[in-house]
Amino acid sequence: MKVVIVGGVAGGASAAARARRLSEDAEIVLIERGPDVSFANCGLPYYIGGTIAERDKLLVVKPDLLRTRLNLDVRVRSSVEAIDRHGKTVRIRDLASDREYVESYDKLILAPGASPLRPPIPGIDLPGVETLRNLQDMDRIKGLLDAGVKQAVVVGAGFIGLEMVENLVRLGVSATVVELQDQVLPPLDKELTTPLASALAAQGVSLHLGESAEGFEKSADGLIVRLKSGAELPAQLVALGIGVRPENKLAVDAGLDVGPRGGIRVNEELQTSDPDIYAVGDAIEVKDVVLGGPTQIPLAGPANRQGRIAADNIFGRASTYRGTQGTAIVGLFGLTAAMTGASEKALQRSERPYHKVYVHPGNHAGYYPGAEQMTLKLLFAPESGRILGAQGVGGAGVDKRIDVLAVAIQAGLTVFDLEEMELAYAPQFGSAKDPINMAGFVGAGLLRDDHPQIDVASLMALPPAGRPFLLDVRTSKEHAAGNIPGSVNIPLDELRSRLAELPAAQEIAAYCKVGQRGYLATRILRQRGLPAKNVSGGYTTYRHYFPEAAVD
Amino acid sequence: MKVVIVGGVAGGASAAARARRLSEDAEIVLIERGPDVSFANCGLPYYIGGTIAERDKLLVVKPDLLRTRLNLDVRVRSSVEAIDRHGKTVRIRDLASDREYVESYDKLILAPGASPLRPPIPGIDLPGVETLRNLQDMDRIKGLLDAGVKQAVVVGAGFIGLEMVENLVRLGVSATVVELQDQVLPPLDKELTTPLASALAAQGVSLHLGESAEGFEKSADGLIVRLKSGAELPAQLVALGIGVRPENKLAVDAGLDVGPRGGIRVNEELQTSDPDIYAVGDAIEVKDVVLGGPTQIPLAGPANRQGRIAADNIFGRASTYRGTQGTAIVGLFGLTAAMTGASEKALQRSERPYHKVYVHPGNHAGYYPGAEQMTLKLLFAPESGRILGAQGVGGAGVDKRIDVLAVAIQAGLTVFDLEEMELAYAPQFGSAKDPINMAGFVGAGLLRDDHPQIDVASLMALPPAGRPFLLDVRTSKEHAAGNIPGSVNIPLDELRSRLAELPAAQEIAAYCKVGQRGYLATRILRQRGLPAKNVSGGYTTYRHYFPEAAVD
Fold first, then answer.
1. Nearest CB to B42; choose among A25, A426, A434
2. CA distance B410 to B229
3. How many angstroms separate the CA of residue B95 from the nearest CA in chain A?
4. CB contact, 8 Å: B426 with chain A?
5. Which residue from B minimizes the CA distance to A528?
6. Cβ neighbourhood burial of A500 (10 Å; 0-12, 13-18, 19+)
7. pLDDT in tens, B441-453
8. Fold that domain A2-113+245-314 belongs to in CATH
9. Under CATH, domain A129-242 is a member of which superfamily?
10. What is the pLDDT of residues B155-166, one digit of tens each?
């Protein structure tokens, strides 16, 4: 068996290592265009920012080790130029000598990855307008920074864009972010990202949302970034992080099927439309495990697992890839934002019915010092309660809860299962009622109709005259410090004795700080026959939607 | 509906709050023997040690708030003396006035908790021989410490015992631990607890394992603790943490069924043998979700959920308790130890077949600074691969992985599912191949026979002459720094060229530092027809079993 693997980073390196473990006799040729294999691409921004001090640490496995330990035929600085599917060969160019030669294969694995988008806007190829994919990009950016960058513009506020911003700020560079969407971190729903926008502002980062770069020009002091609005931003470094596209040229030229967004089409065994050719990693289309359809989600974990699975199938072990659910996380100035499964906007786009609830618990018992608040948004199916997606933003412990919910999605669990989850509790690690249990209680209460809720977005989308009676059940002091416009304050502990102040027939939307007192108020009112709902997540959720001074 | 609830802490307070949310009209009487309801019993050791500075923080909800907000009839310092099941009344003693009176009920919920064991050994009732269950116990212990305790003896090295030790050390008290078992933290398997024992030693704590206190005597300097071995330990404070027993007297006197270990018997609806009487919390027998039989596991999370469920059933909402899986966690001098599901010894006691594997991954990517190593032990069913239990010890991130595995157990997932888990990865939070995936790979590899393994315990239990050929595939430097006695060193990268040095027919047990190189060695050797196995978790697991200098 001779296996040729195109691409030596996450998926390709995993496939090669797995192939060798399964067969000592196989001939395994690993072709990588760059000088490095198996490097830590997720670490690049942190080397730029100095958190990772040694460049060598990013070279997780060097070519020589793959040769010695795994007996792989590793060929770096080598580019696969074409596939001859009929003859089962690839044409390889040795970039050092510029010599081309032909290599045969029994099975071919494509792991070319995805390349950063560089849209054809004027000046995009000027020095200093950079993308970050590999160590060479990183070295170039670091070189610019070492030479003295005062101002940087980051175009695109996705995961990599935000990591770049954090690291630029760490270096003392004045950073500006330009993002086409009206929010940072577009994979998440907007209201979950407002704390990130606030954190950027608090760090002095200038944020241009709903805005795009239309051109780059040289200036005396470096570059000028011209925005669609006409604004001009001076910079000595522009970092583009506006997405990636599958490196599919080889596949397309060879006539392999690709999807509408360019991802190489594979079956569950990760075979392309040619059964002797497999494809893995950021270049492929995968099944969205929640929504069912094809999608493209570039993630390191799935790429690694796909590499294993392709090798398994080649060496006779039946193995299928289940799909990707899009679990992702980013750290930003001490905040963590993470998601798994479908976002609300993805559910809306695919016209899937859903419910959503918000909770704002501490990461551990409040009586133990150092508890940090988080916001969890849970999306679930209306009847079964099956969990469709979750997002979190906050301090410590967000990663843990998103991982728990990622498993819950994988296992097909429901909000009723979240109620019963038995998680590890000691006061420095969690709560007897963990944030996960709380989310389950709130979601299950909604489905059981014990706890009818209205979400802030639906509430505020109504014309003021058409809104429910807005009842703030917090204390008068809390109410005075900021409230939803038009709300009337009756503190929870006075509610039973002040029912006469409520309208007899109008729907009531009760709210408190995070939803707990609002829940109790809802229970009290409904049992008196009043049509009350709780505003999910209370005033804290409201402030996620309206982070500035409250508006009507 | 009139509901009387006996016990106002975790399960009782939860039941009362839930009952009120379900019914504004119900009469809900909450009877608590002590002066406090709903206090943070898991925080008591941390107030003693000073981490929690304000005593008031431990009073999570005060009686007055329950009265005002939940309209509960809260009666503290009141003891329920007897139940008249026929007349559906309880006899209550007001401890302040010593007056007794009778209260009727429609439904009764017993939530009396469990009391610390105080075995009848001489001197057990001397002042200074303390247990820690409530704020009064805590105040007494704190009073002793404030008056000047130089030496303390902690009897019992379970969860609470270890938390006491940590807090005593924090206060500068010289602490000695006496534990009947031959390990600390007996709910866990011994080899997972040796890092805790080492941490205790490093903090100057003297540890007496396989030892028990046989008597306490007054001395000029406080107390003398006399051990079974004859040793005598001076102390001004003895903290007993040797377990708890259900407070079942009321139930037993009323003729309710109790189990062999004293737990009040309940059905899935948490009804006792009297359908008008429910019982919840540490006083009851629960179903062991992994082993199936009845068990008693005192935990705050389950107690809270049981309170909800009992109230749900009383107010007409069908709700069942699924059982307890024993998820528990403790922090000790920066280490975390946690478990979920069945331990190996529990599986052995119940004669259930199982496999076990060990992994020793970092909590996040090694190239990002600050990664901390952990040890995970995974127990799973031989054929299905269903996860039966997990334990972890190490630094940051142990809590997250045990929570993920707790959900996996709840959902009935297998090691094959762990392979595919898509968890949140950025270099400061995890790894592209998360510790959970690694554990899955190793477990699934064992079941698929791609990765035959031998565990350290089985290996070392063999007579030296009967052991497999012990092959250390680490570097010669690593080998020289410490190895399994009798092992021969052939570094992995030389293995393919030195096969002639291996015995032709003898079984080979390969090992490395954590199991990864040993795995590759096993694959190489088996493909050459040599009967090789990998020592699960490698030398690191070995050192968990044999933490001292290696012995034969």
1. A426
2. 43
3. 29
4. yes
5. B24
6. exposed
7. 999 999 999 999 9
8. FAD/NAD(P)-binding domain (3.50.50)
9. FAD/NAD(P)-binding domain (3.50.50.60)
10. 999 999 999 999
